[in-house]
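Let's practice the habit of predicting before peeking. Look at the sequence and jot down your guess about where helices and strands might fall. Then scroll down.
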Amino acid sequence: MQHVERAIFDLRRGLPVVINSPAGDHLVAPIEALDASLLTDMRAGAADPARLVLTGHRLSHIGLDSDLALAGLPLAAEDSRADVIGWACDPNASWPRPRAAIETDQVDEAAIALMRRGRLIPAAVVARVEGILAETLDQRVARGDLLSVNAADIFAHERAAPSLLRWISAADVPLEAAPRSRFVVFREADGLREHVAVLIDDEANWPDPVPVRLHSACLTGDLFGSLRCDCGPQLKASLAAIQQRGGGVLLYLAQEGRGIGLANKMRAYQMQDEGLDTVDADRVLGFGQDERDYSIAREMLAQLSVSHIDLLTNNPAKLAAMNHDAIQVAGRSSVYGRLTRENRRYLTTKAQRAGHWLDALLAEPSDRDEQL
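Done guessing? Here is the structure:
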């Protein structure tokens, strides 16, 4: 497990890693830090043509129809670093050759799993190595300056991650909307993310079912008051609603940008400024409509001994995801943020394309429209 966690860390630092499987050793490089000399070495030392592994969302955007969740594009000698990065994440790129994508293998799937876990663009250059390059990589692995990890271990880590969540610390934190609140911090096994459970009022007096809100972290909205979304006002409204109902739990989840991370969220924002909506912008980067993993939320509630809940949400996906394992969703309550001129398009997209229950909010005039 520790090798998998270090592999994620290395990829986030821009380093390649070696993934081994029964098919052999493969050198895997993240797109975000692809170096021209590394790309040249990978092509020269590959047993098969090096390939660019992309998600089905990204393949469709560059003009390659695919029913596969992942597929690879064999790279030619003339394909430059700029070409490869463009095919992986440039919103204006298209595949220039009449060549179909090829099915991926276990290593490709493991590589993209690592990229997703590290909140990197879900794309990688993968090459099965042989000869001098294979010998060089063996030497670097032996010295400890390059990591080798088994594909099977990556999948095992992915499956086990929620159960490895640890309760780290807790303290009373009085809030403006909820004066009697206690923060409980949970840390994931790889150490990359920490999630917070906000326990409001005395647990012994909580209603049954327990009011629960899942709130994904939003740096721009929660902290800076961004008008592009309704996250900050929705967070405050959720705390107040739980307080008014006699207490409960707000889970503050480190899943920025519907799970794609802050850096990719900013990339998606740039594409939205150029005309794409929030769903299409994420897909252009290779992500799905929602990359969040609610098994973490279920595990947090399990460790808090909360199983019978009333979920504060407008999102049908949350409702479906939480009503599993030991968690029973007994009811649902809407919780709205603030409609502004700047976030109306974003909220409309969520309602029309993701089925969020926002009709009542969208029927109102926006705050800033009234001020003009």
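How did you do? The first strand starts at residue 17 and ends at 21.
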